[in-house]
Amino acid sequence: VSFAEAFEMPHLLEAAEDYILQHFQEVARTSKFTDLPARQLLKYLNSKSLCVSSELIVFNAVVSWITAKSNIRLKLARELVRTVHFPLMTFKEFKEVQSQTLWCDHSLAGLFGEVLEDFCSSESALQHRCRSYSPKECLVLIGGDQISEDLSSRSVSRELWFGNSLRNLTGIKKTVEWRKLGEMPESERFSHEVAVMNKQLYVFGGKKYYGIGDGLNSVFRFDPHQNHWESLSKMQEKRSLFSAVVLDGKIYAIGGLREPDHMDSVECYCPTTNVWSFTRRLDLPLSGHVAKVFKEQIFVSGGQNNDCSCLSSMFVYRPETGSTFLANMSKPRARHCMEVLGEGIYVAGGLTTKDDGSLSNQLACEVYSPAANSWTAFASLSVPHVGAGSVILEGRLYLLGGYSQEDHSDTKMVHRFDTAMQKWENIGRTPGPNNDLRACLLTLPQHLRA
């Protein structure tokens, strides 16, 4: 930060400050943290982009900074401590606050009384107390369907929603502040696919309703900064329950379902020519699989084949030469989520096939190491997420919505996996459609986020 300021490098300064705000807990543990000027520390503590999982992290950072030079910094204690949202702490966390030797200084006796009063605020005062964090990129939900409260009917959506901020509430409670972004043109859709390229959203295929003839091959592109939808060339085949990836400036639509048949065809879209063309077929028909790009290669996991069994396969698909099969997942799954995070490829949720051939929820999760060609289990889900949306937002895996195969109820929850803590967190609820929706990250204009 100091280097960027000294040499007047605004882009480097922005990147450095973004890193500090997103990794505040780690930064606050470094020896250089206590060298921050007071104005800079206050700027970070008051920022809407400060990302912390607990108010105790903020408080401990403040104490660390003050005690490093207490003889000259105690006079700033009141201003710094006021940046901590004490009512959001658990009783266990507040006990740690009470135990700090900082309060032994007699000049802070009145400040501790204010802190205690703040922590003991009445419930009515707490309703609007939260720490809001606004990521630079927004989590966006596209389309999907949902079941009515009495389970009597389903409806398909054309809505787009975005998560404007993530909110820490009292204790461990967290939620997403959702706002409506708009609607897709023409048909509502579910079991579709999306991709983001050059900061624009592409929406492909899916189904507009529940009949065999309700498949779609239409394609639209959305520019969020112009609030403009554009109709593009249609895919050559209608497909749902497929997967789409961006590779080398082109978009690949892989496999899918054209009822009643599972598909092995792959189409490639060139944005320059606005043309779809077929590439090499898959080795087997697939639907309900997931494809992701890792280090310029397309990895494809799971799915269902023509006998509707869930598969445990993982392979690399190359448009020019075909498929290379890798180590199988330990659990078969389809209609699951898969995302690249660091050096691993994480899979979670979906369906699985039981010994009697019936389908059930898959709660087990595992991560694939391309370097070792091996799978390792990680924390299982507590609720089913079949047909959920997923994204990686700032180093964490989000699962959004879905349904339960066993009782056909919608899963209206958002779960987030933190690799550092190795556990799933409940991050609130989806805003509308829950099932067979799609998710992505987009940079949105500032006026939508004000």
From TrEMBL:
Please tell me whether the keyword Repeat is annotated for this protein.
yes
Alphabetical UniProt keywords: Kelch repeat, Repeat
Is the keyword Lipoprotein assigned to this protein? no
User: Where are the bilayer-spanning segments?
Assistant: none
Q: Name one Pfam family in it.
A: BACK
What are the BACK domain coordinates in residue numbering? 1-98
The record's annotation in InterPro entries points to: BACK (IPR011705), Beta-prop_ATRN-MKLN-like (IPR056737), Kelch-typ_b-propeller (IPR015915), Kelch_1 (IPR006652)
**Which PANTHER family does the entry link to?**
KELCH-LIKE PROTEIN 33, LD33804P
Q: What name is this protein filed under?
A: BACK domain-containing protein
Organism listed in the record: Nothobranchius rachovii
Q: Which gene is this protein's source?
A: Nfu_g_1_012597
